[in-house]
């Protein structure tokens, strides 16, 4: 006990001359972790201090400092940052990123096992962190559930981060000294046997990055089954013996509901020969996504069993005329091929070589015929005119010709088949579209075709509700396989404009891009950079008034960070300067923008108006989005030191002479979905000096206008309420941690909630939109994207539109140019990366 007391650092102690300890937050065998505050800038950090009784061990000290060197070599959002290091009373310490959440070990202890989507999210993040570590010549060597931390992003989405690089090994060869050899040998004893690869367990010197992938495979098994791969109850020797020669357990014995492809994937992940294992972290994650979410009719195409490889190739070689007959004269819709195994190339005899050459010739003929079929016999339609975009409400009528002849930009053979599938979907031939998407997958479309096939298959699962999918698209170029932000959309006379953020043009910057989609939701131009001045674009969204579009975002970089708005034309091109509407500061603004008709627009955002308090700020903008009045503070919340209050994540609507704002009011142990109503002629909103002076003399909490919970029970952590107003009144939607997705109807004059109801107990991220007197709500539920029509008096049965995986940001919904037409855009996984998708629903 005396030793433990000696190790403990009291609260108030200043470490390294600038880190004041506030409390202990964790303790292990080697070190304790404390929450601390940088006394110079007030930033909260974690300080990890080596135990006092271990400071005499040179090996332990070196291992401890390796963590700092390893983390410093890597820059990744999926690895806990180490900011600084030093020595406190002869004890080394590290200054690290302060994370809030729990370790994967704690999550598994509490939940026993995880669902496949959550598992995929966490493991994909860990794989991305490993990929960047391996690219920086660093191997972790002690990956286990305790070293994967689950936190959340500011938007409330799951984020996995790798911790503890204390056993990390650098790829550069050692100098052969006794010290280095001893550290490596003794370091292995610090590892965790249950997750050691065979080469680690045998003490081999050539351990490389594939040992980390073995450990991650063991973690995947544990997440899905609730058990470790090996029996750990009989000591280290027995664990090492199992690693060396025991049969690899079959996941299906514990989870028969998992796809067969996962078991094959797992056997490859835990192949005892490193050369037969997955070779990179990216390959590991991409194939795991395929294995956990196989398409029903192409599941066998993902099989990793080597015994079946090459069978179909041999069959095609023996009877090439079968392929020729199928492709020489394409029918109106090419029939989908039977599911096939993916063959492995192997040396062939001369006769086989001639057969393969014939096969390739026939394939070329087929693709050429397919191109003729698509572009000559069934040419792509063009963007629609203002008289009608997309389909009729039944989804069976082609769109009108647009002002220009614009063809889809994706030209690869599989992309032609995807384009044909999208056209079939637009024309109301959903089953044909699914078959064509799967055909494209089998012909090399890889993950793009697979994802679109999966989304379209899901849309046919049920005929409930009044809405049917009449368009499906992936706005970004098919070649992009880096993460996308949440996309946003708007329908114009030229087509459908989609915007998103990624760093494909400059890896150092997160920038906004737009594309134009045709009536079948096919991309018809190259991505347009619409935020060239920005370096870190966040939360982009489109607001619309007829064909006038505004792109709203905040920039978190450079010398002038803040909230920006810029005009975008009907084709998604820059049509005006980027105007900063907030003060110059770095905040989590979450801005919202709404049209005020012919008078212009209103923007609302949140910012830290006083230390420890985030409040709502509003600003009136002109017809060209130029600020025409100073910012107005809408709320003021009084707090006490150390207690944070935030009025955040607002959404707004301007209707009936009123500014309606819904937002999340976050207190330490309570978050409420709130409604704020301000009359547009309110003197405080218009910035009347006398009214503002009177307001500023108030004590305690105050708001401009009237603020109250949407309903008394509208509570939920990370809730993001949304609002849209019709001529009858306003619809508000929000998350409730106890009761799923909720909807309320608000009286337009009194601001009272007339009724509220639960959309779905398992629903999440609801969003609302109106078009005239028509209204719709979209949300996520059970890995599905759903939509339902609503009115002042009723909520219709929902329709399934697509799938969604993991914890994604809320979707975007926009009205089309025809009655009963709605566009929904959202983000989903596509083989290990986050991709933007858009779907059109035709609703009766």
Task: Compile the SSE list and pairings.
Elements: H1 2-7, E1 14-15, E2 19-27, E3 31-38, E4 44-50, H2 58-72, E5 82-88, E6 91-96, E7 102-103, H3 104-111, H4 116-135, E8 138-139, E9 148-152, E10 158-162, E11 169-170, H5 178-190, H6 198-201, H7 210-225, H8 236-245, H9 260-269, H10 281-292, H11 311-318, H12 320-327, H13 350-377, H14 413-426, H15 430-459, E12 467-473, E13 488-491, E14 496-502, E15 511-517, E16 528-529, E17 537-545, E18 548-555, E19 562-568, E20 579-580, E21 592-595, E22 601-610, E23 613-621, E24 632-633, E25 635-636, E26 645-655, E27 658-667, E28 670-679, H16 689-696, E29 702-703, E30 706-709, E31 722-725, E32 729-736, E33 740-747, E34 753-760, E35 763-771, E36 774-781, E37 784-790, E38 799-803, E39 812-815, E40 821-830, E41 833-843
Parallel strand pairs: 23-26
Antiparallel strand pairs: 1-2, 2-3, 3-4, 4-6, 5-6, 7-9, 8-11, 9-10, 12-41, 13-14, 14-15, 15-16, 17-18, 18-19, 19-20, 21-22, 22-23, 23-24, 25-29, 26-27, 27-28, 28-30, 31-32, 32-33, 33-34, 35-36, 36-37, 37-38, 39-40, 40-41
Helix pairs in contact: 4-7, 4-10, 9-10, 12-13, 13-14, 14-15
